Amino acid sequence: MAELPPDQDPLNFDDPLGFNPYAPTTETALQPVSPDDVEEYRRTYLTHEASCKSIGTLYLLGAILFTPIGFFALLGAATVGSDERGIMLVVGSLYLCLGLLQGWIGLGLRRLLNRGRTGGIILSTIGLLGFPVVTMISAYFLYLLLSEKGRVVFSPQYRDVIAKTPHIRYRTSVITWIVLLLIVVAVIALLVSVA
Questions:
Q1: 170, 50 in Cβ contact below 8 A?
Q2: What is the pLDDT of residues 109-167, one digit of tens each?
Q3: Rg for the chain (alpha carbons), in Å?
Q4: How far is Cα 132 from Cα 134, in angstroms, rounded to an integer?
Q5: Which residues contact 13 (CB under 8 A, 6 or more apart)?
Q6: CA 138 to chain centre
Q7: Residues above pLDDT 70, as percent of the chain
Q8: 91: closest CA among 81, 104, 77?
Q9: Cis preceding linkage at 35, omega within 30
Q10: What is the pLDDT of residue 10?
Q11: Residue range 4-25: mean pLDDT, rounded
């Protein structure tokens, strides 16, 4: 088989100018943005900020669910027989504590406080045991909280940037709202079919 000249060989990536479009990039770090330009700095991290706050929202929803269940289980323990009372007290206490903990962590995440980040990391690490769906969600939460952008978003300097740029807000895309609406409709349909 005859060899093609180098300028006609499709496998020859040597460019006379030294540019190889298939070469891996040499720059993998985040582009530095000066905190002095507060608007550009905020816009750089705005999507990550919104993602971290959404974790807090999910934990607050968990608190709204678990806290009343725990409270009513503790109240129900007074009305059941002595055989079930111990189980109801343990389950009620567990749900109530988990709900209050999720509420505390959720508020911390919504306010971008380090205590919320630390609590979110702990709960997400425990969530890795919930194979397979909860594992994937928890792994994504850990990525958001432990990444370099996560460290920036939860820093005191970034909270100062937020205070200086209250006019910059994250806008949720229409597609996200549609997907959320479909999920809510599916959950309602599931609850109606079960009832």
A1: yes
A2: 999 999 999 999 999 999 999 888 889 999 999 999 999 999 999 999 999 999 999 99
A3: 25
A4: 6
A5: 20, 21, 22, 23
A6: 8
A7: 83
A8: 77
A9: no
A10: 57
A11: 59
Which among 48, 45, 21, 49 has a CA at the least distance from the CA of 34?
A: 45
d(CA 148, CA 50): 15
Q: Which residue has the tokens 């919504």?
A: 110
| Amino acid letter, 98 | L
- Per the listing, tokens 């891996």 go with 24
**Quick one: pLDDT band at residue 87, thresholds 50, 70, 90?**
very high
Sign of the dihedral through C-alpha 128, 123, 151, 56: positive
Residue 166 neighbours by CB distance under 10 Å: 8
Let me know how long the chain is. Answer: 195
Q: What is the pTM of this model?
A: 0.74
What 3-state DSSP class applies to 53?
A: helix
- Say which residues have a Cβ less than 8 Å from residue 47's Cβ, sequence separation at least 6: 170
d(CA 125, CA 112): 19
Q: 3-class SS at 37?
A: coil
Rounded Cα distance between 58 and 65, Å, is 11
Q: Which two tokens stand for residue 152?
A: 């920036």
